[in-house]
């Protein structure tokens, strides 16, 4: 236990045996510290009990302690997941035009865009409910690289502050973010408009903009996993929405995530967005989607997760899928 005398708070270092990194948490007083440590202990017990079932082959994924270990379930939800709201623009029209893709060749059994360096590094939305902005930026960074072979890092904060169709750190949607970038004529670089983990006034200026050019966006057919597979392999990474209100997902570490409670979720409820970058089948024969998250490198499998594929759009993973159409700035 360390004392942080200057700030008058105690600092508790919560160790994670899986990695060398240690997360420091600072609490207001000793009572809060003791409460958080008990929450951490209870979550550790929960994780260990689940992993005993995993070791016996009773569940398909493993859990691991992480930086959410001192949070209660409702606190995690309030901090990390978007508030559900109706999709679509104010006019009721789809934000991105719908498309039905046709595959002219046989699709691969496995695909991973990370193998071609298309996917940018995992980022961390921290305590801002801005997964939608991180998913949109991740898609833009990937599609821009596919077009130009130029690696740029774009500003999530630009979207959080300036996309008035979304709600900043209270939630939003990736397709609305694409539409903002199109209408705005660009998006700032991360260096010019860094992430602040809070809502702010829009400070975008054209001189802050990146070289990324977005002409349009497309929405895949809802719940159609074959369309999602075609899009990932033939078009590129795709933003996906899902239902993530469950401690199983909060502490996901590895394996193929399948949670029967998702089948009992409120109809149409989606409260998290991420970027699908691949697909495949596990050694145990479990089909999965490979998805890049925005909860930091030390969450999940180095910031990624696998979720069940061909299981009726499990947790809504194929219910709302979009991708941007990015142009080559040399054209």
Automatic annotation (TrEMBL):
Alphabetical GO biological process terms: proteolysis
Keyword Hydrolase: yes
Gene3D superfamilies the record matches: Cysteine proteinases (3.90.70.10)
Top-rank taxon, per record: Eukaryota
Cathepsin propeptide inhibitor domain segment(s): 21-76
SUPFAM superfamilies named among the record's database cross-references: Cysteine proteinases (SSF54001)
GO MF terms, alphabetically ordered: cysteine-type peptidase activity
Keywords per UniProt: Hydrolase, Protease, Thiol protease
Domain Peptidase C1A papain C-terminal, residue spans: 107-325
Family, per entry: Belongs to the peptidase C1 family.
Record's protein name: Cathepsin L
Species the sequence originates in: Parthenolecanium corni
């Amino acid at each position: 236990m360390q004392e942080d005398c200057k700030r008058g708070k105690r600092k508790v270092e919560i160790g994670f045996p899986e990695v060398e990194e240690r997360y420091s948490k600072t609490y207001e007083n000793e009572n809060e510290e003791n409460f958080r440590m008990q929450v951490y202990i209870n979550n550790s017990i929960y994780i260990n009990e689940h992993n005993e079932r995993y070791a016996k082959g009773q569940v398909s994924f493993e859990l691991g302690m992480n930086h959410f270990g001192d949070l209660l379930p409702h606190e995690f939800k309030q901090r990390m997941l978007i508030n559900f709201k109706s999709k679509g623009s104010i006019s009721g029209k789809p934000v991105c035009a719908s498309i039905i893709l046709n595959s002219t060749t046989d699709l691969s059994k496995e695909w991973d865009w990370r193998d071609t360096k298309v996917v940018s590094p995992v980022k961390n939305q921290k305590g801002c409910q801005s997964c939608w902005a991180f998913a949109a930026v991740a898609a833009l960074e990937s599609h821009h690289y596919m077009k130009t072979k130029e690696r740029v890092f774009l500003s999530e904060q630009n979207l959080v502050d300036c996309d008035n169709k979304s709600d900043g750190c209270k939630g939003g949607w990736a397709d609305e973010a694409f539409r903002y970038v199109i209408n705005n004529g660009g998006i700032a670089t991360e260096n010019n408009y860094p992430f602040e983990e809070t809502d702010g006034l829009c400070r975008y200026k054209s001189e802050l903009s990146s070289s990324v050019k977005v002409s349009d966006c497309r929405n895949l057919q809802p719940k159609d996993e074959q369309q999602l597979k075609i899009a990932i392999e033939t078009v590129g990474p795709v933003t996906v929405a899902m239902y993530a209100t469950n401690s199983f997902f909060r502490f996901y570490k590895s394996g193929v995530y399948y949670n029967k409670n998702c089948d009992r979720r409120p109809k149409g409820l989606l409260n998290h967005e991420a970027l699908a970058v691949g697909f495949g089948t596990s050694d145990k024969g479990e089909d999965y989607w490979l998805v890049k998250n925005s909860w930091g490198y030390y969450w999940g499998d180095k910031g990624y997760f696998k979720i069940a594929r061909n299981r009726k759009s499990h947790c809504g993973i194929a219910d709302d899928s979009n991708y941007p159409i990015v142009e080559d700035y040399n054209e």
